[in-house]
Amino acid sequence: MSDCLFCRIVEGQIPSDKVYEDEELLVFKDIAPKAEVHLLVIPKIHIDGLNNLLPEDQQLMGKIMLLLPKLAEQQGLDTGFRTIINTGKGGGQEVFHLHVHLLGGSKRLPFC
Ligand code: 5GP
Ligand code: ZN
User: Fold this and answer.
1) What is the pTM of this model?
2) Active site residues
3) For residue 63, how far is its CA from the centre of ligand 1 (angstroms)?
4) Which ligand sits nearest to residue 10's alpha carbon?
5) Residues 6+ apart with CB under 8 A from 94
């Protein structure tokens, strides 16, 4: 989707500070970090949000869940971390390409 900000990041049309990439997932630093560590984990395929998941996305979502603690460890978040998925305008979602916020490293973690 050419009008989607995160699809444009996946396609390299908008630069990002990448932390991890494989054939299905991309992880990059949030442009406006709310904690010492603030990463965004996204599927490379466009999915608007949790409300738009299909049964065939189950493996992909499981892969994201398993990646999160590995990323946290790599980032040195040895005492724990926070994950947030905002869904829909009422849930605070601003970018409508499914993403998981991974936050940590601050004494008082915010909500995003
Ligand atoms: P949401 O509110 O949709 O859950 O979160 C969207 C997040 O994307 C926000 O934390 C915001 O700072 C981040 N963001 C918005 N535009 C960009 C961008 O161009 N690059 C990066 N790296 N992050 C962005
Ligand atoms: Zn997209």
Assistant:
1) 0.97
2) 99
3) 21
4) 2
5) 86
